[in-house]
Write a structure and sequence with these properties.
It is a single chain. The protein is built from 13 helices and 15 strands. By secondary structure, the chain is an alpha/beta fold. It has 2 domains: 180 residues, Rossmann fold; 165 residues, 3-Layer(aba) Sandwich (Rossmann fold), CATH 3.40.50. Strand 8, helix 9 and strand 9 form a beta-alpha-beta unit. The longest helix has 26 residues. The chain binds SN-glycerol-3-phosphate (G3P) and magnesium ion. The site of magnesium ion has 10 residues, from loops.
Length: 361
């Protein structure tokens, strides 16, 4: 910061912040598990010296696969700052709103990581991962014998299914919902088993029936991981499943996708950031011994790398969102993106934070 900016910044440090920041993760903060764009030092500037939060911010990612609390600890370690579970909004976070629809009914969770643990964490009572579910049906995947994968996978699928959940009568229990929590690991097996579940009305190998609801945590066609060019995301898996399902079944696939760019995701992020702002203000009131009124944040910055997802979403959300596009991920252009232009284009997330702090202080 320039000295004058730094002075103003320290003068105002006990006052309530009037802005918040939402960070995309893949292609902005990390590539794979490696911090990029100066993210650790940039994030440090959003904390007081004692490590408490100064500026309300959160991570708004379409990725996922582990509970928010676990992702928060992982991010804290990687980035060297304390991140709370409240500051992590993943593609599947809105699934928690559906818990009352499923009470004690069997649901299937698909994807890398711990998809069943994610759903149990949200309060779903009867969840099986698709790995566990498939293991109850011998021969459901005719290619399984050729899949010589890592030891964990083999352990999961070769264990005696009845020992996994002795209380479940899986072969007779209808699957009432399928949730794609994170990227499918074995597209072939998952497309096969999902087609079985969806076209049979939740009882694979049995009669046909009404399709149970299918939910996707996001619909990203591609995203930026560690490899130099983009990788196929959940949207690509959705297209593959949809194409196959529509060919093997009379009725077209019905599904709901969550995640960015849905405006509800941005509304929810805004509500969380106002909550974070209130707790920061509460702390500063205690420090000042005075009373300050609460106001909603005037500006919320979305820093993302994907024009059709992050920037499109922030633009659709409207006031108070301000979009910042980085060149560290999906977008690499010199100028702004033609179809989904951002309010600002910068090289890295660190440049984005520089701009925000200079503008706000
Ligand atoms: O699988 C992750 C990907 O779809 C996008 O993650 O952080 O760029 O929203 P992010
Ligand atoms: Mg991204």
């Amino acid at each position: 910061l320039r000295p004058s900016t730094a002075r103003r910044y320290s003068q105002q440090k006990l006052e309530r912040p009037t802005f918040g920041i939402a960070f995309d993760i893949d292609g902005v903060i990390l590539r794979g598990h490696t911090p990029i764009g100066g993210s650790p030092q940039a994030l440090k500037r959003l904390y007081f010296e004692d490590g408490t939060l100064k500026i309300p911010f959160l991570f708004l990612t379409n990725g996922g696969g582990i509970p928010e609390s676990k992702r928060a600890s992982e991010l804290s370690k990687l980035l060297g700052v304390h991140i709370s579970a409240l500051q992590v909004v993943q593609g599947h976070s809105p699934f928690r709103e559906l818990v009352n629809r499923y009470k004690n009914e069997l649901i299937i969770a698909v994807g890398k990581g711990e998809p069943a643990a994610v759903m149990s964490d949200y309060g779903f009572k009867k969840v099986l991962s698709i790995d566990e579910y498939a293991s109850y049906f011998s021969d459901i995947d005719p290619l399984s014998q050729y899949k010589i994968w890592g030891p964990k996978h083999r352990l999961d699928t070769s264990s005696n299914p009845t020992e996994l959940h002795p209380e479940y009568d899986v072969l007779k229990d209808r699957v009432r919902g399928a949730f794609v929590v994170s990227d499918s690991v074995d597209w072939g097996r998952d497309i096969q088993v999902l087609c079985d579940i969806l076209r049979s009305g939740g009882l694979p190998g049995k009669e046909n029936g009404d399709q149970p609801p299918l939910y996707f945590a996001s619909d990203d066609l591609e995203y930026q991981a560690a490899f130099p060019s983009e990788r196929l995301g959940m949207g690509a898996f959705r297209i593959a499943l949809e194409c196959v399902f529509n060919r093997v079944h009379g009725n077209p696939l019905k599904y709901t996708s969550f995640g960015k760019p849905n405006p509800s995701v941005f509304k929810n992020a805004e509500a969380i950031m106002n909550q974070l702002q209130s707790s920061i203000s509460r702390n500063s009131r205690i420090m000042n011994g005075g009373i300050k009124e609460q106001y909603p944040l005037k500006t919320i910055y979305m820093i993302g790398d994907n024009p059709s997802v992050d920037i499109n979403g922030a633009r659709k959300a409207g006031h108070p969102w301000f979009s910042i596009l980085t060149r560290t991920g999906v977008f690499r252009g010199k100028e702004n993106h033609a179809q989904f232009p951002a309010d600002l284009v910068v090289d890295t997330v660190e440049d984005g934070i520089d701009y925000i702090l200079q503008k706000e202080y």
